[in-house]
Amino acid sequence: MGESQLWHAVDGYFADRLLTEAPDEALTAALRDSDAAGLPPISVSPVAGKLLQLLAQVQGARSILEIGTLGGYSTIWLGRALPADGRLISLEYDTRHAEVAVRNIARAGLARQVEVRVGAALDSLPALADENMPPFDLVFIDADKVNNPHYVEWALRLTGAGALIVLDNVVRGGRVADPANTDPDVVGTRAALDVIGSHPRLTGTAIQTVGTKGYDGFALARVLA
Prior knowledge:
Blueprint: H1 3-18, H2 25-36, H3 46-59, E1 63-67, H4 73-79, E2 87-92, H5 95-107, E3 114-118, H6 121-131, E4 136-141, H7 148-157, E5 159-168, H8 184-198, E6 202-211, E7 214-223
Parallel strand pairs: 1-2, 1-4, 2-3, 4-5
Antiparallel strand pairs: 5-7, 6-7
Helix pairs in contact: 2-5, 3-4, 6-7, 7-8
């Protein structure tokens, strides 16, 4: 068995034993419809989706901001962690992606709690700040990587002490640690990690992962007082 096959097999093993809820048509349909609509197959894995849900539950999150909706698969995982009066705002650049996501979110029964806003996130984020809504308890960043440092900085502005920021895809197949690699996505990811590591109001770490999505990882940052 090759390395990649082994990663897939272990992910399947974990999913079979730990994601023990009844078959979930809403999540399955979200992936199916996203694929049928031609969206890129880059949604988080089921095991990672459950991790996001658990992080939101452990955080006691009542308000969540997601930067990068795609087809709404991770949005559903996060939305299900909210209490009945909780809210989730997800920002999506692509109108077609947002249309698919809105249908998937509605089918999952989360239309009242989840709002998808369409447009460039760096336009939507200042608009959110202007609304003066209560701080978000958790921010999940999974969008264009070149803007990751800006997204982390905005996440910090839109949260309060104790909030959790999750930044996805920080390993990039190991390219993040290669100083010769100047791919804009890698450069943006490095810059975001530098923000987390140097900002006086953030403390964080990063975790490497392997699985159905290959070799990657995520960073976690807690907002300090």
